Amino acid sequence: MKNWYWTLNGEPITDSGGNTIHANVQTIAPQLKLGSQLPPDAIVI
Questions:
Q1: Are 21 and 14 contacting, i.e. CB atoms less than 8 angstroms apart?
Q2: Which domain of life is it from (predicted)?
Q3: Which of 3, 6, 1 is nearest to 28 (CA)?
Q4: Domain that holds residue 30
């Protein structure tokens, strides 16, 4: 089985621990939002 990863602009998306997020496992897909859609208390890193 091949490993698939979520990417954004060609770079792997990582979780808060710095681990790449696999796309071929049964986990919740990352939710990407535009800056205008973020709540006022959102933390952007």
A1: yes
A2: Bacteria
A3: 6
A4: 1-45
Picking from 35, 36, 32, 33, the residue whose alpha carbon sits closest to that of residue 13 is 32
- Domain total in the chain: 1
**Digits of tens for pLDDT over the chain (45 positions)?**
678 888 889 999 888 888 888 887 676 666 777 778 888 888 776
Residues whose CB falls within 8 Å of the CB of residue 23, separated by 6 or more in sequence, listed in order: 4, 5, 6, 29
**Cβ burial, residue 2 (10 Å; 0-12/13-18/19+):** exposed
Does pTM top 0.70 for this prediction? no
